[in-house]
Amino acid sequence: MNKIVSATTMKALVYLAPGKKSLEERPKPDLTAPTDAIVKITKTTICGTDLHILKGDVPSCQPGRILGHEGVGIVDKVGSAVTMFKPGDHVLISCVSACGKCVYCRKQMYSHCTTGGWILGNTIDGTQAEFVRIPHADNSLYPIPDGADEEALVMLSDILPTGFECGVLNGKVQPGSTVAIVGSGPIGQAALLTAQFYSPAEIIMIDLDNNRLEVAKRFGATTTVNSADGKAAETVMAMTEKRGVDTAIEAVGIPATFELCQQIIAPGGTIANIGVHGKKVDLHLESLWDRNISITTRLVDTATIPMLFKTVSSRKIDPKLLITHRFKLDNILDAYETFGNAAKTKALKVIIEA
To answer: pLDDT tens, 39-59?
Structure first.
């Protein structure tokens, strides 16, 4: 698509219906509230949640929506109430918009902000476009210092805080503990990278894809288990002397992976769900009622972005390792094809340059 786009329109990836999407020309967004900012996207990416939307798993996202909730860019315009940013500033976009004032924001539960939360690429137009409107800009953008690796910082919009907050923190990972991460896709790998902050004794990565398991070994997994034979639970129980794991992190979002977490959790352990579930799952209280386990659910709040920003800047972790493919916005349909067929393409995260 080589068409010249005028100053009032832009290219954007639009969700049309379950299984259908297209790259279209759309009106460039404008300010609708004094707390808004308009950001020119420089780099964005595709999330597993976008694939769930395209499967029809997220009914809040209606056809006609521009997808995407991650990215970095340059501030194009700000509303009169925005005090932290000005045109020309390079910024990281949080996948969650936060007013900073409501009852949930005051609890740092930004994902449940009464006028924000996860709205980008869900209930309002998102970041897989040349421009995006960011509500509550002062609390939903982060300044990028000169010289920072903006590709690496795209991973801070969603994937790293999600793996850390929903998996590692909710899963109560502790020094010397045993952790199993079910799903070695991008979110599972982000949980693996950030779990190592707490020095668990073992991190077991479970997946169907040997390539992703090899990547997990390079990222610090102590053991990997290919679950294709249907015996992953038996394997993990044998590895742990039939005790199970202290933390089981569900990082896929399908019934089989949540089932596996229930089978391998040790007494007193925690199952931390990250995955976006579009179908019901069974809770086996008949076998878990006396096990002293906790089950946690969460949508990322991105409250840990400032801390993770520092760990990336100091090179304690390198989220750029997660990037496997790069595309121009004109080729975003190819990017979706690549990301959606990861078993063939060996894709983890794709960078899309707007």
So the answer is: 999 999 999 999 999 999 999
CB 140 within 8 A of CB 98: yes
Write the CATH number for 87. Answer: 3.90.180.10
Radius of gyration of the chain (CA): 20
Q: CA neighbours within 13 Å on the CB side: how many for 214?
A: 6
Least Cα distance to 128 among 347, 320, 322, 352 occurs for: 352
pLDDT tens digits, 236-276: 999 999 999 999 999 999 999 999 999 999 999 999 999 99
Query: How far apart are alpha carbons 36 and 30 in whole angstroms?
Result: 9
What band does 5 get if pLDDT is binned at 50, 70 and 90? very low
Looking at the structure, tell me whether residues 63 and 143 fall in a common domain: yes
Same-domain pairing of 16 and 149: yes
**CA dist., res. 136 & res. 113, Å (int):** 11
Q: Looking at the structure, tell me whether residues 41 and 63 fall in a common domain.
A: yes
The per-residue pLDDT for range 178-204, each reduced to its tens digit, is: 999 999 999 999 999 999 999 999 999
pLDDT of 1 strictly over 50: no
Q: How many CB atoms lie within 10 A of CB 68?
A: 29
Domain ranges, residue 281: 162-296
Q: Which of 58, 186, 73 is nearest to 122 (CA)?
A: 58
- Cα dihedral across residues 110, 43, 68, 26: positive or negative: positive
Q: Which helix (H) or strand (E) holds 313?
A: helix 305-313
Instruction: Compute the distance between CA of residue 33 and CA of residue 5 in angstroms, rounded to an integer.
Output: 26
* pTM score of the predicted model: 0.94
The domain that holds 216 is classified in CATH as 3.40.50.720
